[in-house]
Amino acid sequence: MPLFIDIPADRMIVSGIPAALLVHGAVFLPQFSNRTLEFLGDASYSIYLLQVLSIPAALQLAQAATPGIPGDAVVLWITVASLAVGAANYVGFERPLLVYAKRKWSR
């Protein structure tokens, strides 16, 4: 069994160089402000926590409401529903709880 993995050079050219350029571009791009993306970033923890519940529920709802729906539409529906559930949890629960905690412990 060889100790080193034999990687063909064309793999580095086809995958490695474009990946390095993407990382370079992402690091050195000027930052911009977008309120929607900032909101999704703030709500990302709620979205992350609730996706375990919202994705199966949205899938069941999509299959029950519209049988035979194309797979692409199901993925879009699940993504939008999962983002909406997480964002609603952030606005209705997480953000008020953070405000309360800051007030309580900042004294």
Low-confidence stretches: none
- Continuous helix count: 4
Mean pLDDT: 88
Fraction of helical residues: over 70%
**Main sheet makeup:** none
In one word, what is the shape?
A: flat
Span from first to last CA? 64 Å
Q: Per DSSP, what share of the residues sits in E-state strands of 2 or more residues?
A: under 5%
Class inferred from helices and paired strands = mainly alpha
> How do the helices and strands follow one another from N- to C-terminus?
HHHH
Number of strand segments: 0
Radius of gyration: 21 Å
Task: Characterise this structure.
The chain is mainly α. It has a domain at 34-105. The chain contains four helices and no strands. Helix 3 packs antiparallel against helix 4. It is flat.
Summarize the SSE layout with pairings.
Layout (H helix, E strand, L loop, with lengths): L8 H20 L6 H8 L1 H22 L5 H35 L2
Helix pairs in contact: 3-4
